[in-house]
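Researcher: Please predict.
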Amino acid sequence: MRLSTLYMYQQSAQSMSARMSQSNETYLRMSAGKTLLKASDDPAAATDAVKYKDALAKLELYSDVRSRTRGALEHEDNILSGVGNLLTTTLKEKLVAAGSGAYSDADRNALGKEIEGIRQNMLDLANSRDGNGRYIFGGFQTGKPAFLEDGTYDGGNEARKQTVADGTEMQVGHLGSEIFDDIFGILQTAIDELSKEKMDDDALEDALKAAGEAVDAGIDRLGKAQAELGTQLQQLDALDISGDVMIIDMKVKVDTAIGADTGVLVSLMAESQMSDLALNASMYVYKNMQKMNLFNS
C-alpha cells in the first residue's frame, strides 16, 4: 500500500498542477478578451485574423478618406455659393446700373470702384485654401494661388482625384479655369471703361455687354459645378452606408477568428468557473493526501 499511497500523492499533485495551469490559461484569455493568444493556438484562425484585420484596416482607411473628401467638397460648395451670391445679386445689379442712361460719368466712376471691389472679392474666393493651406482651385498645383492678381489662371490642368472605395475614384474639386474661365479679364475691361474721366459710350456699352454675358455664363458654370458636388456628396453618403455595413461585418469576422465574440467570451466565463471548481477540488484532495502517512495501510 505504500506504493499505492505514493502514486496517489503524485497523481494528486500532477492533477492540481494541471488544473492550476488550465485555470491560469483561462484567466489569460479572459483578461485578453479573446481565445487566440498566439498563432500556434489555432494557425488557421490566426491566418484568418490577419486577413480580416487587413481588410478592416482598408475599409476604415476608405471611411477616413471619404470623410476628408466630403469636407473638401462641402468647403468648395460653400465657396461657390459665395461666388454665386456676388454674381447673381451684387455684380449683376451694378453692371445693369452702369449701363443706365440715368447715371452721370461720376456715378459710373463710383460704380466702377464698386465692381472692382467685387472682382477682388471673387478673386480672393478663387484663391481660397483648405484647412491645410492648399489652394483648392489649382488642381494638383496646391502650393500656389490658382489665379494671378490680373485674373490669369495659373493652376494645374488636371483636377485632383481620390480613391474613396475599392474601384471607385472621385474628382475632388474643380479647376479654377472651369469655374471662373476668363471672367476676371472681362470684368477688368468693364472696370477700365468705367474708370475713365470721359466715357466712350460705344466702348463702355460693349464692355458692359461682355461683362453681363460673362456673368450669366459664370452663373451657369457655377450651377453645373454645384450640381456635380451635390451628386458626389450623395455618392459618398451611399458609400458610407455600405462601407459601415462592411466594417461591422469585418469586425465580427475578426472577433470570431480571434475568439473575441460574445459567445466565446460567455463560454470562457463558464470555463473559468469550471476550472475554479476543478482546481479547488484538486487542492482539497492534495491537502488531504499530504495529511496521509505514506506508511498508512
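Model: The chain is about 70% helix and 5% strand.
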